[in-house]
From TrEMBL, chain A:
One of its GO terms (biological process) is heme transport. The lineage of its organism: Bacteria, Pseudomonadati, Pseudomonadota, Gammaproteobacteria, sulfur-oxidizing symbionts. InterPro entries: Haem_export_protD_CcmD (IPR007078), Heme_exporter_D (IPR052075). It is found in: Cell inner membrane. It is a single-pass membrane protein. This is Heme exporter protein D. Belongs to the CcmD/CycX/HelD family.
From TrEMBL, chain B:
The chain crosses the membrane at residues 21-39, 51-72, 92-116, 128-154, 161-182, 194-217. This is Heme exporter protein B. It comes from Solemya velesiana gill symbiont. It is a multi-pass membrane protein. Required for the export of heme to the periplasm for the biogenesis of c-type cytochromes. Belongs to the CcmB/CycW/HelB family.
From TrEMBL, chain C:
GO terms for molecular function: heme binding; heme transmembrane transporter activity. The lineage of its organism: Bacteria, Pseudomonadati, Pseudomonadota, Gammaproteobacteria, sulfur-oxidizing symbionts. The chain crosses the membrane at residues 20-46, 66-86, 98-118, 130-152, 164-183, 203-224. The keyword Protease does not apply. It holds the Pfam family Cytochrom_C_asm. Keywords: Cell inner membrane, Cell membrane, Cytochrome c-type biogenesis, Membrane, Transmembrane, Transmembrane helix, Transport. This is Heme exporter protein C. Residues 26-187 form the Cytochrome c assembly protein domain.
Length: 57, 222, 249
């Protein structure tokens, strides 16, 4: 099965790659969003601790 | 037990009737929405006759959503709700009383107005009767289910829109059987099946919805 | 008996659950990637071509797992909500809100792939088929939950209100499903069968199961990662958070 034939998917290329593409897109985007959310939470917590440390002094 | 129910019912009715304008707002909304559709879809009678049940029912659903906002907020703001929660009588009855009052104020006018709206869509006499009965069975269920959403979103900003987002998916069965009943009677299939289902949904809602509303009020009023 | 319950509850405190969630998250993401890669390979190269729908049917290997996951995640959210209400443990509510976005994503994916499958097979992007319609309503339930969580600032109230909404929703799902089925068969007669699970070739079935387990591991991984962020957000004032290596470093 040549590569072109594979991508053609028996004429259903748009539909098959449309659904697999959307699924792949979302299932890759979500972990990335989660990682950036984690980073921003850690940054905020660190800032809170720094502020508390300064108030304590 | 029954006096408490009657007391709450009377209290809420008198409170609502003092501000008579609120009663007419939901009714006016219902009439306007139903009359808008022919302007959008066109005056051909046969298409209108076909869409009539759906249109009237969706309009009834939306206008009952509209009125939910005021169900608990007035008492919540002036602290009466906390007193009710602390009252020795079972809160189930108090919630039932308030929802009945709400239904009498907003649901009944819709039911009485619906035959008139049906005439706009040239529905036959029998279909109008079935429309009336289906709304009579459906609007209390909508108020009961809506009360859960109203209690959950008590005192939240943007509460009005949020209530509809929460409650509309849950009231889809009522819409399906309500509109389906009229359509079934028009197409000669007979509407008993649909009306029985609506009765079943109403009984279910009557039993379980106040419990959920009660829990939601406890959560929100804390 | 009591000692077993005790250490089981040890994990209900965010401080002890936080590192555990990290480990589970990493492991389940590894399993998810492995399973999905195997599943993808099988769905394109191993699974035979469908006699009727040709290559287009391969969308089933994404559509069905996404639909199953969207329903399964809602049930898991209901499970955590019940736990949260009975034991009043804050962590269960955090798990529910951690699962919701992933569940909503899977619901949206099941609609998207359902539409992309409907177009070649039935000629229209959207078919008011009973299952697709119920998936749409499930998507609305997810949006309702997320909107409610977003609208309430006080976490204590948003936890319990969310839990109640999920329970009310899960009780209504069967009613909605059957009324939609009744409504659908009434208007369209026998619905167009999407795919005969029974007549599935075993290889097709196994491919779909592998993909489903892959999606399942993926959902656990994302839920764990999101619950860790939620824990950090909610416990930001506590000392154990301030001593965390990643915070101090």
């Amino acid at each position: 099965m040549s590569v072109a034939e594979f991508f053609d998917m028996g004429g259903y290329a748009l539909y098959v790659w449309g659904s697999f593409g959307a699924t792949a897109l979302l299932m890759i985007a979500e972990p990335i969003i989660l990682r950036s959310r984690r980073r921003s939470v850690l940054k905020r917590v660190a800032r809170i601790i720094r502020m508390k440390a300064e108030d304590a002094r | 037990m029954f006096e408490v129910y009657r007391a709450i019912l009377m209290r809420d009715l008198t409170l609502a009737l003092r501000r008579r304008s609120d009663v007419f707002i939901t009714l006016f909304f219902f009439v306007v929405v139903v009359s808008l559709f022919p302007l959008g879809i066109g005056p051909e009678m046969d298409t209108l006759r076909m869409i009539a049940p759906g249109v009237v029912w969706v309009a009834a659903l939306l206008s009952s959503m509209l009125a939910l906002e005021r169900l608990f907020t007035v008492d919540f703001d002036d602290g009466a709700l906390e007193q009710m929660l602390l009252a020795p009588q079972p809160m189930f009855i108090l919630v039932l009383g308030k929802v009945t009052a709400h239904w009498l104020i907003t649901g009944i006018p819709l039911v009485l107005m619906s035959p008139l709206m049906g005439l706009q869509y040239d529905l036959s006499g029998n279909a109008l009767l079935v429309l009336l009965v289906s709304l009579l069975l459906g609007t209390p269920a909508l108020s009961l289910i809506g009360a859960i959403g109203a209690a959950l979103t008590l005192g939240l900003r943007g509460g009005g829109v949020l209530v509809s987002l929460l409650v509309l998916p849950l009231s889809i069965p009522v819409l399906i059987f309500g509109a389906g009943a009229v359509e079934a009677s028009v197409s000669g299939l007979g509407e008993q099946g649909h009306l029985y289902m609506m009765g079943a949904i109403l009984v279910l809602a009557l039993l379980f919805a106040p419990l959920a509303t009660l829990a939601a009020l406890r959560i929100s009023a804390e | 008996m009591s000692s077993r319950i005790l250490n089981w509850f040890k994990f209900s405190s965010p401080a002890t659950f936080y590192p555990l969630a990290g480990r589970i998250g990493v492991w389940s993401m590894v399993i998810a990637v492995v399973l999905i890669v195997v599943g993808l390979y099988m769905s394109f190269f191993v699974a035979p071509t469908d006699y009727k729908q040709g290559e287009g049917y391969r969308i089933i290997y994404v559509h069905v797992p996404a639909a199953w996951m969207s329903m399964f995640i809602y049930l898991v959210m209901a499970f955590w909500s019940v736990l949260g209400i009975i034991y009043n443990t804050r962590l269960s509510a955090m798990m529910t809100s951690a699962l919701a976005p992933t569940g909503a994503m899977f619901a949206f994916l099941s609609l998207w792939t359902g539409a992309f499958w409907g177009k070649p097979m039935w000629g229209t992007w959207w078919v008011w088929d009973a299952r697709l319609t119920s998936a749409l309503i499930l998507f609305f339930l997810y949006l309702g939950y997320i909107a409610l969580q977003g609208a309430i600032d006080d976490t204590r109230r948003s936890d319990r209100a969310g839990a109640l909404l999920v329970l009310v929703g899960v009780v209504n799902i069967p009613i909605i499903y059957f009324s939609v089925k009744w409504w659908n068969t009434l208007h369209q007669g026998a619905t167009i069968k999407m795919s005969g699970e029974a007549s599935m070739d075993p290889v097709m079935l196994w491919t779909m199961l592998i993909m489903t387990f892959g999606f399942w591991a993926y959902a656990i991984a994302t839920a764990m990662s999101r619950v860790r962020s939620i824990i950090l957000e909610r416990e930001r004032e506590t000392t154990w958070v301030s001593e965390l290596p990643e915070v101090r470093g």
